[in-house]
Amino acid sequence: MQVEEKLALIAQHLFHAADLARNGYTARDIAAAVESGRFIRMRRGWYLDGGRWEDGEAADRHLAALLAANASAPGARIFSHRSAATLHGLPVWSGWLGAAAGLGSSLPEAAERDRQLAVEVIARGSVSGPSTPRLVRHRCELADADIGVFGGFTCTSPERTIVDLARTEPFAVAFACAEKHLRRIACTGRGVDLEAWAAWRERMLERVRRRPRMRGSVAVRMIAVLAGPESESELESISRLRLLQLGFEAEQQVPVRSETGGSLYLDFVLRGLGLFGECDGRAKYTDPEFRGGRSADQVLYDEKRRHDWVSGSTGWRGIRWGAPDLITVGRFGRRLREFRVPVPGAPTRAYGAEAAAFLRRLP
To answer: Superkingdom of this entry's organism (predicted)?
Structure first.
């Protein structure tokens, strides 16, 4: 479901106190509903149906917080950082991605709720006021060109949002977001627009050249240098990052003739080693949206036939991994070694000495 569709759906379950009063709720009734969990207080005067909150994922809950914040001050706020990323459909709320970025185990439930309810904005010019538990204000330079309107929300552009994420979030989170954005602007079907990719990289590098002393400038530069458009999910993005950390230069989305005469596309190929790698999330086998009407058993059987065909027709050996194997570079390296893959162990130097040193420091 697209972000716009999610916003429209969530808005049906968001109520203002005045609307509730017109439907017979007293202030005492509302307080009791909040106490029981029937309503979730999003911010002063705004409430979300408790069932919708419980059923929603973290990103959906934050979208509800954004709807309430925007309705309380229409057009007055420039949403940024995680909030803008959520509006742009970038994967900042992925739990396993946070773990891979070194954030550790989940926060306590109350702390996680507070995090989902807190919206982030950039305060410009004479805008004053401190941050609050529900409104985090960032004071930083912001050009008019970096502001846009998305679904009725004034927010930072995707490119500026990625810069802000690189400066404030763990690198793996910003990297996965950058690769998702790059895929949108530099890929058409299976084709990569090399000019669009190069232009994006140059714009990102120019931001660092204009402000070389800004906090997080190295991370922004490394996003520009390392991010690519070929990863089709955050799982593939972190797989690629781990491979770079371990010293591999893998090809992505490599076409192989299928059994029926079409093409199969492999997540990663290490030609020099005669290997192909596939990263699978659990949802591929358990989520009806990904199964395409097939049973889990049928998906498993189809994947086995695909694997056998690729191995038999190319002579390459196939290996698989999932999200738990990518939590740290050490864990991923151990898995590859168990599969008898010769792991270089030192980051690739294909992107220069600075990038290699940066990759070595990542968790």
So the answer is: Bacteria
